[in-house]
Amino acid sequence: MLKKTLLFMLSFFVATGLALAEVDVNKADQAALDGVRGIGPSMSRRILDERQKGGSFKDWSDLQARVKGIKDKAAAKLSANGLTVNGQAKAGASGEAAAAKSGKTAKSPHAENKGKGAADKMADEPTAPRK
């Protein structure tokens, strides 16, 4: 039983590692691009067509400028999902992608009080003990 459990855990980690493998946009074929979460057949075709027409992508800004449908937000998600340009992830992509995956955005310190009335805000504040 222990051997089966260890084998299962090992298989799981290997499969997870392969799913998160990096795919370089300048070296990948259509199947590899389709394997990146967020890239479908039409986007992978646009990437390959543009790469064939204009040569390798120099950096993320070059990719974003040349391929329709890849702007800052999409590029950050694709980078977090394993896409690279010349082996480089998009700068700042990990923080943006973590927020995008969790569905949360960065909040200001006063964001939790937004939309509350004065009575609700006062109820949240600590009060001084009465004598």
Question: How does this structure look, described?
Answer:
17% of the residues are buried. It is built from seven helices and two strands. The chain has 131 residues and is mainly alpha-helical. The termini are far apart. Helix 5 crosses helix 6.
Low-confidence stretches: 96-111
Distance between the termini: 65 Å
Strand order of the biggest β-sheet: 1-2
What do the pLDDT scores average to? 77
Main sheet characteristics: 2 strands, parallel
Q: What overall geometry do the principal axes of the alpha carbons give?
A: flat
User: Taking Cα atoms only, what radius of gyration do you get, to the nearest Å?
Assistant: 23 Å
List SSEs in N-to-C order: HEHHHHEHH
Helicity level: 40-55%
The count of helical stretches stands at 7
